[in-house]
Specification:
Order of helices and strands: HEEEEEEEEEE
Distance between the termini: 32 Å
Number of strands: 10
Largest sheet: 8 strands, antiparallel, barrel
CATH class of one domain: Mainly Beta
Strand content: over 45%
Number of helices: 1
Strand order of the largest sheet: 1-3-4-5-6-8-9-10
Shape: elongated
Helix content: under 10%
CATH topology of one domain: Porin
């Protein structure tokens, strides 16, 4: 996993040297965001997180820019209940994910001073750490063969061994600020493969509302 992330970083750092008419800075756009996981099933509720990113812009043609970058995103999901086996289930679950993200986005911009833009692209999320906490309910037999109910709170790490792939679409506005631009942007990220897949599945799907600064 570490070698894969380092290889991706080196590739993205080298990409600007092959383009023409690109921004001089290695990173010319910076954003911070509030992340909101959507309520995608009756078993889930929305939770909030945050993120930050830096991006380099390549000029593909007069109409389209291509953005490469790096992001850190923290997202959370709440599940009312989850199956844990024949004699157990958990409730009031909060999953938290810390991810290193690599987005690639195509951007179309219209306007002169105040500019509006539309983004569409793809991303890869590498889950660096994942935890969950909630209440466990177990029904285990005692020495007489009678099932005994137990309830306790728990907190534990969650293993995620593969990267998450997905697509994204965003809308935003850029406003002149001194010699640079202030921007506001909203985005929907839709993970295709699951983070956790059993009877209950968890997906990497969330919305972001970001503010940023473009050099």
């Amino acid at each position: 996993m570490k070698k894969l992330i380092l290889s991706a970083i080196l590739i993205l750092i080298m990409i600007p040297s092959f383009g023409q008419q690109n921004s001089v800075q290695l990173f010319g756009e910076f954003r911070v965001s509030i992340n909101r996981n959507g309520s995608f099933t009756p078993n889930t509720r929305e939770k909030f997180g945050f993120g930050a990113g830096a991006y380099h812009t390549l000029k593909a043609n007069e109409m389209i820019d291509v953005l490469f970058g790096f992001e850190y995103n923290r997202t959370s999901q709440y599940l009312e209940s989850m199956y844990e086996g024949h004699v157990a289930n958990s409730t009031d679950l909060t999953y938290s994910f810390h991810s290193f993200s690599i987005p690639i986005t195509a951007r179309t911009t219209v306007g002169r001073k105040v500019k509006f833009f539309v983004d569409a692209g793809a991303f890869v999320d590498f889950i660096l750490a994942a935890t969950r906490k909630g209440t466990m309910h177990t029904y285990s037999p005692d020495e007489n063969g009678h099932f005994v109910y137990n309830e306790f709170d728990f907190s534990e790490r969650v293993k995620v061994s593969y990267p998450i792939y997905g697509v994204s679409v965003g809308l935003g506005i850029k406003i002149p600020l001194l010699k640079h631009e202030f921007l506001v942007r909203t985005e929907s990220k839709y993970g295709i493969n699951t983070i956790y897949n059993d009877i209950d599945s968890i997906f990497d799907r969330y919305y972001t509302l970001a503010i940023g600064y473009k050099l």
